[in-house]
Amino acid sequence: MTTDAPQATPTPNAAFKPRIFSGIQPSGGLTLGNYLGALKRFAQKQDEGIETIYCLVDLHAITVWQDPEKLRQQTREAAAGFIASGVDPARSILFNQSQVGAHAELGWLFNCVARLGWMNRMTQFKDKAGKNAEKMSLGLYAYPSLMAADILLYHATMVPVGEDQKQHVELTRDIAAKFNHDFKTDFFPTPEPLIEGAATRVMSLRDGTKKMSKSDPSDASRINLTDDADMIAKKIRKATSDAEPLPESVEGLEGRAEARNLVNIYAALADMSPAAVVAEYAGAGFGTFKPALADLAVAKLSPISSEMTRLMADPAEIDRVLGKGAEQAAAIARPILEKTYEIMGMIRSR
Ligand code: TYM
Q1: Where in the chain is the domain with CATH 1.10.240.10?
Q2: Residue in 44, 59, 164 to alter for ligand 1 test, most ligand atoms within 8 A of Cβ
Q3: CB of 151 shorter than 6 A to ligand 1
Q4: How confident is the model over 191-221, as pLDDT tens digits?
Q5: Is 25 near ligand 1, meaning CB less than 6 Å away?
Q6: What is residue 317's predicted lDDT score, i.e. its pLDDT?
Q7: 219-311 falls under which CATH superfamily?
Q8: Closest ligand 1 atom to Cα of 60
Q9: 234 is catalytic
């Protein structure tokens, strides 16, 4: 018996060993949002000793048209960004999605598990498609089910992401629970989103109500991980703020989206809480706070951008790292995919 409703009692994850999976689209340059919401935390999780698998999701990137040469370049640059941010390919598996065919295969199987009604609720599709839904690719619509496949192909139990990916991880849980229910199994875990820290949603430097994004037409709205020290400092100096001094407590940031964003960025870069940041700068205006933030951002980010430049000088080495990571990933993914086919009733006689 199948059911259209997500199941109430998911499989307990205690039966699965702790494993982290997460991904980033190589659909443009990496931003400070990607760094604070994802990359910095990816490296921390690896350093905590949890098994970590990280993926450049090129199959997701092509849900909107990508220039092939640029896609190759951006994938290498994103790989360099991971490594420069502290993801160590000797301790984490790092690869690009299309080199492990099992992602696309499990994605198809999950297209047959996920319900149209669930997809229709995905806010990111609505945001990206806007009034042009009819002209979007079928892939963009089905994308969350491929994301579920990315995660569940490794029986991952935890998924570090920024706030904007929460709904997709919840859908992953629904797909896992429905699969387990429909096939009377407890084969897939129900992974937890890990949305932690002060910068789970870094906002645009021009408009504190919009997410910082690689696709924003204004380059001044974001800090790119490839920006040099001068550019970082300039963008922070020019960031939209307000005329009030910083309050004594975070409650005082209510209704001040830009101020709150700059405080959160400071907190995440300095590994402090936003409360500690406002306590330190209470009463200071942005004339004081912005230069301090610019200095901090330059100190933390410019070593990353120079390391990326160094790594990018040897693209063959990056490709080698991704190839090796893909082999390691495939070794975990293949048996899980094979078992999924078997559970679903496909003959495996090859
Ligand atoms: P993507 O490529 O848009 O973003 C990659 C990661 O960066 C986080 N992020 C942010 N965090 C805070 N503030 C921001 N302004 C900001 N912008 C981006 C995202 O939340 C994300 O964690 N669908 C995913 C990629 C994906 C994936 C997966 C993630 C595919 N398969 C499996 C986890 C597990 C995406 O488009 O992320």
Answers
A1: 219-311
A2: 164
A3: yes
A4: 999 999 999 999 999 999 999 999 899 999 9
A5: yes
A6: 98
A7: Tyrosyl-Transfer RNA Synthetase (1.10.240.10)
A8: 30
A9: no
